């Protein structure tokens, strides 16, 4: 199985000041995901008994006043206690990922989901321990240190200070690291050896890829909420509230991991690169009309509702111009605090006119000094790392040309000048070994969902 650490990602859009830092909660181990809604006739791991097999009455009488939505804050899982502090500290990570803007009613739903996640995490650690799999604390510490360096560019002490400042702790994060490493190792021992993808299956898949050359692939994020006919109104209302939070700036990855009921939840709802034929018609039709960065839903399915987020799209086995590497110069001016809008507009207009007279990148620095502007250069910017609104504009520029001015009174006005462009090579697609590994990972993940479902079924859980 391939692994990738993406637990707390602080990733700027580009080094030219074009976007803010965003905190994203994602798992330590990031295997390929399989969507709840993907059409996969070969998947035999998701069979469940129909409701009729339970012999349920059509109009049951409920005895007592038990509220099925009321849960205690803590639990004991096979004798191991999950405390309220455990829940609060893990919840703080999610709240931080959403900029702290979580209304009280949403906070309660998140708290219940965090408790469910902690129960699963506890079951995974317990099962690994029963299989004599121990995760060395030194390995956990090394991973924690790698997060601090790769995602924060600081030492572990700085990360510990950040976590404490948001109401979480290094202990909570390290437990998550331990849980996911333990589960990965358990799957490697108990599941992966029994997964087999034949050479014929791989060759068939490679032939399909070649036949699909030039067709579009979509990288889609999904939040899937299961529902019966009786629970659909309540689940729809919940989906609409989640949609409101996402439109308000909430992290799709964080919400997918906490709420989605498909196996892709473990990787923040990311379905990976798929073709629309792999989706049911209810999802493929709106997905075909989406632009990267767009969010749609709730979309009604026979088994529930889905929220879709188009992360990106591309053409199969075709070079994507957005993978071109650019050499850019950013020329920008700032406005003193309190500058009237009319005055700022006049300066921006004069700045735009002056920039048009600059004769290529070689003259940009001197022209910037004359304009009282700041000039920043970067020779390693991929087109797809720029804001979506700028990508098409940049792709149409010739060397020495600039974009139209953009910005605001608060952030200043800037232009980007194209100084060079290295076009991407034609995409050849995965080789035989890579494709076989991807197919094996996908099957391991499907088996993992069944494995975890069995652990939940056999667990003794007490709510305090």
Automatic annotation (TrEMBL):
Residues 215-312 form the PpiC domain. One of its GO terms (molecular function) is peptidyl-prolyl cis-trans isomerase activity. InterPro entries: OMP_Chaperone_SurA, PPIase_dom_sf, PPIase_PpiC, SurA_N, Trigger_fact/SurA_dom_sf. SUPFAM superfamilies: FKBP-like (SSF54534), Triger factor/SurA peptide-binding domain-like (SSF109998). Keywords: Chaperone, Isomerase, Periplasm, Rotamase, Signal. It comes from the Bacteria. This is Parvulin-like PPIase. It comes from Novosphingobium fuchskuhlense.
């Amino acid at each position: 199985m391939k692994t990738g650490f993406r637990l707390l990602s602080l990733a700027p859009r580009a080094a030219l000041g074009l976007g803010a830092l965003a905190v994203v909660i994602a798992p330590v181990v990031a295997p390929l995901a399989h969507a709840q809604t993907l059409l996969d006739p070969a998947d035999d791991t998701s069979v469940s008994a129909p409701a009729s097999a339970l012999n349920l009455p059509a109009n049951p009488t409920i005895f007592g006043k038990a509220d099925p939505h009321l849960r205690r804050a803590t639990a004991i899982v096979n004798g191991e206690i999950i405390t309220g502090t455990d829940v609060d500290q893990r919840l703080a990570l999610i709240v931080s990922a959403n900029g702290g803007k979580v209304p009280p009613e949403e906070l309660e739903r998140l708290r219940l989901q965090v408790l469910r996640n902690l129960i699963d995490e506890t079951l995974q650690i317990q099962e690994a321990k029963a299989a004599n799999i121990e995760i060395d604390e030194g390995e956990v510490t090394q991973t924690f240190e790698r997060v601090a360096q790769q995602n924060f560019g600081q030492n572990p002490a700085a990360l510990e200070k950040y976590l404490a400042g948001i109401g979480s702790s290094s202990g909570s994060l390290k437990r998550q690291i331990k849980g996911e490493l333990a589960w990965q190792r358990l799957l490697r021992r108990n599941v992966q050896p029994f997964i087999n993808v034949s050479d014929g299956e791989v060759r068939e898949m490679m032939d399909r890829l070649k036949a699909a050359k030039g067709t579009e692939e979509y990288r889609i994020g999904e939040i899937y909420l299961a529902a019966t006919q009786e629970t659909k109104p309540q689940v729809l209302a919940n989906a609409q509230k989640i949609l409101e939070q996402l439109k308000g700036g909430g992290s799709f990855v964080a919400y997918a991991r906490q709420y989605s009921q498909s196996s892709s939840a473990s990787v923040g709802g990311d379905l990976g690169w798929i073709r629309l034929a792999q989706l049911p018609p209810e999802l493929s039709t709106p997905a075909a009309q989406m632009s990267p960065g767009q969010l749609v839903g709730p979309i009604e399915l026979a088994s529930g509702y889905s929220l879709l987020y188009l992360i990106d799209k591309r053409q199969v086995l075709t070079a994507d111009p957005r993978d071109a590497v650019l050499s850019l110069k950013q020329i920008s001016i700032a406005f003193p605090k309190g500058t009237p809008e009319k005055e700022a507009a006049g300066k921006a207009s004069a700045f735009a006119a002056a920039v048009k007279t600059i004769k290529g990148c070689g003259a940009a620095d001197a022209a910037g000094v004359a304009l009282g502007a700041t000039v920043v250069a970067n020779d390693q910017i991929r087109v797809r790392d720029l804001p979506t609104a700028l990508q098409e504009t940049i792709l149409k520029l010739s060397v020495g040309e600039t974009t139209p001015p953009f910005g605001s009174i608060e952030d200043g006005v800037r232009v980007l000048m194209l100084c060079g462009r290295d076009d991407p090579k034609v995409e050849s697609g995965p080789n035989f070994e890579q494709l076989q590994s991807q197919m094996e990972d996908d099957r391991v993940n499907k088996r993992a969902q069944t494995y975890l479902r069995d652990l939940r079924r056999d667990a003794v859980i007490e709510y305090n």
